[in-house]
Design brief:
2 strands; globular
């Protein structure tokens, strides 16, 4: 599977609208989890593998490659870390995560009670 790139067809957009390319990338297994984890600071491959529970080394390597080639993470002496773009993306998504947890998810809790 190739890396979603703005301007090229991606899931949900034949024209490759940038937001759709980004959502395609972030929708891949563990992509968001890796970004969420790296916002706490640099991490080694082994620590990322532990954080991602049952992720195979092959899948983790693919995700790391995709996120590196998308300018969201980089490899440093301390391990993998977010780039400035990756940090900015996290900070843009964090409020969405709060909304999902505190507002949207309550619809399901209220329905199940």
């Amino acid at each position: 599977m190739k890396i979603p790139t703005p301007g090229k067809p991606v899931r949900g957009s034949k024209t490759g609208q940038p937001i759709m390319a980004l959502l395609d990338l972030l929708g891949r297994n563990w992509a968001m989890g890796i970004i969420w984890h790296l916002y706490q600071g640099p991490s080694t491959f082994r620590r990322l593998q532990e954080y991602c529970e049952y992720i195979s080394p092959t899948t983790l390597n693919k995700r790391l490659k995709e996120l590196r080639e998308s300018y969201l993470i980089e490899r440093t002496l301390d391990g993998y870390t977010l780039t400035p773009h990756g940090k900015e993306l996290y900070e843009l998504l964090a409020p969405l995560g709060g909304w999902a947890r505190h507002t949207w998810a309550k619809n399901f809790m209220d329905r199940d009670n």
